Amino acid sequence: MAYRALDSYSVLDYLRATPALGAVLDLSAPLHAREVGDGNLNLVFIVEAATGQSLVVKQALPYLRVAGESWPLTRERMRFETQALLKHNELAPGLAPQVYHFDDEMSLVVMENLSGLEVMRKPLVARKRFPNFADHISTFLARTLFFTSDFYLTGVEKKELQAKFINPHLCKIQEDFVFTNPFMESPENRWNALLDDEVQAVRQNSALKLALAEMKLSYMTHAEALIHSDLHTGSIMANAELTKVIDPEFAFFGPMGFDVGAVLENLVLNYLSHFAHTPDAATRREYQAYLLDLVREIWVQFAAKFDALWVEHNRGELMPAKYWAHPGGAEAFAEFRRRTLARILQDVAGFGGAKMLRRMMGIVSVWDITSITDLEQRAVAERLAIRIGSRWVTERQAISSVDDLIGIVREEAA
Amino acid sequence: MAYRALDSYSVLDYLRATPALGAVLDLSAPLHAREVGDGNLNLVFIVEAATGQSLVVKQALPYLRVAGESWPLTRERMRFETQALLKHNELAPGLAPQVYHFDDEMSLVVMENLSGLEVMRKPLVARKRFPNFADHISTFLARTLFFTSDFYLTGVEKKELQAKFINPHLCKIQEDFVFTNPFMESPENRWNALLDDEVQAVRQNSALKLALAEMKLSYMTHAEALIHSDLHTGSIMANAELTKVIDPEFAFFGPMGFDVGAVLENLVLNYLSHFAHTPDAATRREYQAYLLDLVREIWVQFAAKFDALWVEHNRGELMPAKYWAHPGGAEAFAEFRRRTLARILQDVAGFGGAKMLRRMMGIVSVWDITSITDLEQRAVAERLAIRIGSRWVTERQAISSVDDLIGIVREEAA
Questions:
Q1: Which letter, b or e, does each residue of B151-178 get, where b requires 16 or more Cβ atoms within 10 Å of its Cβ?
Q2: ipTM score
Q3: For the CA atoms of chain A, what is the radius of gyration?
Q4: Which residue has the higher pLDDT, B69 or A154?
Q5: Hey, which residues 338-357 in chain A have their CB within 8 Å of chain B?
Q6: How far apart are CA A149 and CA B310, in angstroms?
Q7: pLDDT for A166 beyond 80
Q8: Shortest Cα–Cα distance, B363 to chain A (Å)
Q9: Higher pLDDT, A119 or A75
């Protein structure tokens, strides 16, 4: 069927004409759909049956919403999202929505409705706690990254998978809007007018811009694993029990630190937002301490799980057991793993810092902070984000533990 | 036409049945073919007409010759070679053989016969000089690497080209036989029996093996540019005027330093071979000095040409002129280029060293040295190669100029 954008009526006709979905929801029952997309690229419908069953229909639009129809984007991104969701379900079962149906022509995927789960940004602003989050997200990161890397896959398997995730148009969005445009004059950039001086200072900071260029080069060339590539807290839904990573349409083979950095950086931005959202100092400090504990726990658990997977599932590319069989070889293998994780942590700093900065002065802001209505108060958090982000990027090569990353947050926020 | 391996008779029938080749050579004249392949993967025929015209037919065999028929290899590598030759002709005209005809089904390419040119190994052993070589090979490297990198191509262009060069089976050969198998017990390894102690010492050297694992990871993940990936002096034909790079069937998007390192490392192996090939000390020292001058010249000219191309053809991915337009921005851009080339030089050391080592103890030796018939004399050169290769790999992060690389050669050879 030729592509046409659906609305909340035609989506029901589409579902009724797809009998395989009868296994998920009673297609003969009365159905109701509402469009709930707040993203920039897609229509999202929640469809509910009178029986209480439900599902989600997500359809790519042929343009980037926030920039108007002038940004043509291939609809193939829904194929990348579907492929990535299937891979995530395979590698990290229970931590991504299930896929029920995919229609390439219509650029449409039908998937599990995550009712009872919330996108994490608002509850984090409301100081909600997620007792399983550090465990779940570190598992998601460790398993999706390890099992798609050269540490697990054979060279041939990895390159065959990589060929399915060559995703140039979505990559270009991140390349331009994370690393380049926010840091020079570009018409789509937006920032709090009270930050004019800080934005100009970033744009004139040669050391910082050189480091950002290096991070962009690394993003464009380091094909380490299948990364989600947009793993902010708006791409995570959770409740007290469950965690689900959504929206992997930017997925491609890139640097692992980009995903880990996105999670940690968004927790830091949320931390900073509480200087305005949580005026009571004791309450604020307690929740901010919780957020920094999350940052530490996520990294520590990620590193431990990644390392354990590597030891348990070493299939030999880097390197076979025989290669490490000499006296001292076990220690050399352990040191190789330790150095690899140390390098990923430095990438976490570099990518996390770049993403923190772009949220302050690029096309995409961050709700945790833009929801602060008092511009002076908002500027307090934003100035801190610029200082922390800049230091994460420029000091990345001196970062040797997650406490160094957290230390920069503490020093600047003190 | 279904695949069948040609012989020196059937190749003529094939050519006569391909009328388009009439533009290259008179198909109605008497033709003569001889098989001259000394490689491991292919049949190579030189076909000459009574008119004096000639061409080369290269056909992939469905197995790796040196390992016997037990190593099935896809014939698709002839497609990679042809694509790469066409790209090389486009980007570095005159520095690669011209392609006349490609037959995907037959895994066969018809190309320019490089009569009057020699594969460089033997003339280098015979102390021949190539006055244009440093200029030509540095141009080939600078242009093929720069114009296929993210410094020149847009992100979308690069990824589309990269998709055509996902080359898993040929990559695997380099991954295994350059970085892994030579450094552990593996049945195909061969070395001079006088080197038993040195080979065992390499296999037990934890620091070296850790560094080799890091270089392999970089080879497998750093998709910087379309590299030749087998650019030793056996893949270069030359005479006093001309230089042609041949055999790019291993081409894929990998680290630039791998190609530059292959050229320099092979010149160093040739340098070492002269301790046996050229007994007269004055003659030897003069030619060895020439070889180290070549090493320096090739790097210096490569770096200068790459940098000049980048300045002249900056299409904006890393980064646009506007990004560097702030006060001090020109210096920051220059520093970014300087650091990029410094990092490539460290890769040259790491990859060049790894390749030097594998030639001493892996499946593929090097004619310059194996042609030394006296095993004691041969061992002198080989021990030096092991020491120099080990230091290039383990000291790579301290290399800051090509003179550091040459200094290691001089110190060990003194």
A1: bbbebeebbebbebbbbbbbbbbbbbbb
A2: 0.95
A3: 22
A4: A154
A5: 339-340
A6: 31
A7: yes
A8: 16
A9: A119
Minimal Cβ distance to B175: which of A155, A171, A180: A155
Please say if the pLDDT value at position A92 is more than 50. yes
Residues 6+ apart with CB under 8 A from B21: B15, B27, B55, B100, B101, B110
Q: Packing angle between helix A329-361 and helix B206-221, nearest 10 degrees?
A: 40
Nearest Cα of chain A lies from the Cα of B387 at a distance, in angstroms, of 20
- Radius of gyration in angstroms for the set of CA atoms belonging to chain B, rounded to a whole number: 22
Is the CB of residue A131 less than 8 Å away from at least one CB of chain B?
no
User: Cα–Cα–Cα angle for B283, B286, B292, nearest 5°?
Assistant: 140
Which residues lie across from B72 on neighbouring strands?
Answer: B63
Tens digit of each residue's pLDDT (9 = 90 or more) over B171-209:
999 999 999 999 999 999 999 999 999 999 999 999 999
C-beta of residue B57 within 8 angstroms of C-beta of residue B11: yes
Helix (H, G, I), strand (E, B) or coil at B110: strand
Alpha-carbon span A273 to A369, nearest angstrom: 5
**Does residue B262 contact residue B97 with C-beta atoms inside 8 Å?**
no
Binned at pLDDT 50, 70 and 90, residue B329 comes out as very high
- Contact of B364 with chain A, judged by CB distance below 8 Å, is answered with no
Q: What is the DSSP letter of B22?
A: G
**How far apart are the C-alpha atoms of B142 and B344, rounded to whole Å?**
12
Distance (Å) from the alpha carbon of A80 to chain B's nearest alpha carbon: 15
The torsion defined by the Cα of B1, B7, B13 and B17, in degrees rounded to 10, comes to: 40
- At position B131, the amino acid (one-letter code) is P
Determine contact, residues A401/A344, Cβ cutoff 8 Å. Answer: no
| Three-state secondary structure call for residue B366 | coil
| B371/B278 Cα distance (integer angstroms) | 13
Rounded (to 5) percent helix, strand, coil in chain A: 55, 10, 30
Structure tokens at B133: 């070589």
- For β-strands A236-238 and A118-119, DSSP reports them as antiparallel
SS3 B125: helix
Q: Hey, is the C-beta of A2 within 8 angstroms of any chain B C-beta?
A: no
Residue pair B240/B132 in contact by the 8 Å Cβ criterion: yes
In whole angstroms, give the CA distance from residue B103 to residue B175. Answer: 28
Which residue of A317, A331, A340, A393 is the best one to mutate when testing the B interface, meaning the one whose CB has the most B CBs within 10 A? A317
Are A159 and B150 in contact (CB < 8 Å)? Answer: no
Listed by number, the residues of chain B in 198-257 with a beta carbon closer than 8 Å to a beta carbon of chain A are 203-204, 206-207, 209-210, 213-214, 216-217, 220-224
Give the rounded percent of residues in chain B with a pLDDT score beyond 90.
88
Q: A115-130 burial by CB neighbour count: b if 16+ within 10 A, else e? A: eebbbbbeebbebeeb
CA-based nearest residue to B173, from B40, B3, B348, B361: B40
